[in-house]
């Protein structure tokens, strides 16, 4: 329904434009015919012939322009592979909409990153809305895609985390007036279509087994064509699915409320990772000084309760074998650590007795560092 409405609006706009142009031509023709009626001799004949010609031009425009427009939009150009430099150049001149739907994008790898981010900044400054949908690095589909690309030696979750790390840093560098125009979400679904859209045009392809999607033929289509309508609907379906997508802000940090004597003290944004359904947070933003519980607002798509009271537990006290992969995940998500991370696990408290469902941590926290 959403796509059909957009198509009708686009068709109405084209019809309106055709009638405006035709009306202008008919106005010119009427002026010429009126002048011919009031004139005599050669000038009258000349204006009469010109006026009649303009009337025919107006009628022809109304009839044939929609046909030519539809033929142009139905045309599909095929490219042998994804041309990063050409797409970045198009981004620089985009002023309405930029959309990327992919597992991860090579545009944010070292070779093209600076040019890509400069082009995105230019598009934002021109008034474009930039939306990126990348695969959730922690979902099953990301691991399956890694297995499909095993011969290419591509670690898909690691590539996605690197993309998201660069996007988070770029988003923080934007001035306040541009930040709302850049929207990044991750999706938990089987990837099927790759989309790179700039204004009314787009490059689309499908994910081949055992090959990178950038190295297969790309179709350049008009977004008002049936092909464009198909990928638009797929993008909208994922983007608006609250259970299947997560915003970059929710992926990047979670909110914990420090508590003392069963009273909430202060909210703190902390980095986090999830391993086997367990959530770990980096508590270096506050010093540990006394027994502490926290109220945490976990990401919507989680096996744990979305919100609740937790005790902070040393990761090594619960699962010594998990300490290394947890640290590695923090490094992959946020970049190599400086050795000062304080990683603790969120252990849910049992309802009714105010105690954790496991060993209590001796840890506490002072959000002011005292």
Task: Provide keyphrases for this structure.
370 residues, alpha+beta, Endonuclease, Chain A, 3 domains, eight-stranded mixed beta sheet, seven-stranded antiparallel beta sheet, 15 strands, 42% helix, 23% strand, disordered N terminus
Low-confidence segments, given as residue ranges, are 1-11, 355-370
- Strands, count: 15
CATH architecture of the largest domain: 2-Layer Sandwich
Total number of domains: 3
Q: Report the sheet with the most strands, covering strand number, pairing sense and barrel closure.
A: 8 strands, mixed
As an assembly, this protein is single chain
Radius of gyration: 29 Å
CATH top-level class of the largest domain: Alpha Beta
Shape: elongated
Mean pLDDT figure: 79
Structural class assignment = alpha+beta
CATH topology of the largest domain: Endonuclease, Chain A
Provide the succession of SSEs.
Answer: HHEHEHEHHEEEEHEHEEEEEEHHE
Helical content stands at: 40-55%
């Amino acid at each position: 329904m959403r796509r059909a409405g957009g198509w009708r609006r686009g068709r109405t706009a084209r019809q309106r434009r055709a009638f405006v142009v035709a009306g202008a031509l008919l106005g010119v023709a009427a002026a010429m015919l009126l002048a011919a009626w009031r004139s005599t001799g050669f000038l009258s004949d000349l204006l009469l012939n010109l006026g009649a010609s303009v009337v025919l031009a107006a009628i022809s425009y109304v009839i044939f322009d929609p046909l030519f427009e539809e033929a142009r939009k139905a045309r599909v150009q095929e490219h042998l592979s994804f041309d990063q430099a050409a797409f970045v150049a198009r981004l620089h001149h985009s002023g309405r909409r930029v959309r990327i739907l992919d597992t991860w994008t090579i545009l944010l790898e070292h070779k093209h990153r600076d040019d890509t981010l400069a082009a995105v900044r230019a598009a934002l400054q021109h008034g474009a809305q930039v939306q990126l949908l990348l695969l959730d690095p922690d979902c099953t589909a990301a691991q399956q895609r890694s297995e499909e690309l095993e011969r290419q030696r591509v670690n898909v979750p690691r590539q996605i985390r690197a993309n998201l790390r660069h996007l988070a840093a770029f988003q923080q560098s934007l001035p306040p007036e541009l930040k709302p125009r850049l929207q990044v979400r991750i999706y938990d679904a089987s990837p099927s279509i790759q989309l790179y859209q700039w204004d009314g045009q787009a490059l689309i392809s499908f994910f081949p087994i055992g090959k990178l999607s950038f190295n297969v033929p790309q179709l350049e289509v008009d977004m008002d064509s049936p092909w464009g309508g198909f990928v638009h609907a797929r993008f909208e379906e994922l983007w608006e699915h609250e259970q299947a997508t997560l915003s970059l802000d929710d992926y990047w940090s979670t909110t914990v409320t420090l508590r003392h004597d069963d009273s909430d003290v202060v909210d703190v944004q902390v980095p986090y990772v999830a391993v086997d359904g367990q959530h770990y947070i980096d508590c270096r933003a506050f010093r540990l000084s006394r027994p502490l519980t926290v109220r945490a607002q976990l990401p919507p798509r989680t096996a744990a309760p979305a919100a609740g009271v937790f005790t902070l537990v040393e990761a090594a006290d619960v699962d010594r074998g998990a300490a290394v992969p947890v640290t590695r995940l923090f490094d992959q998500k946020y970049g190599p650590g400086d050795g000062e991370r304080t990683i603790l696990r969120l252990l849910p408290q049992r309802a009714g007795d105010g105690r954790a469902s496991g060993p209590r941590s001796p840890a506490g926290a002072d959000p002011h560092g005292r």
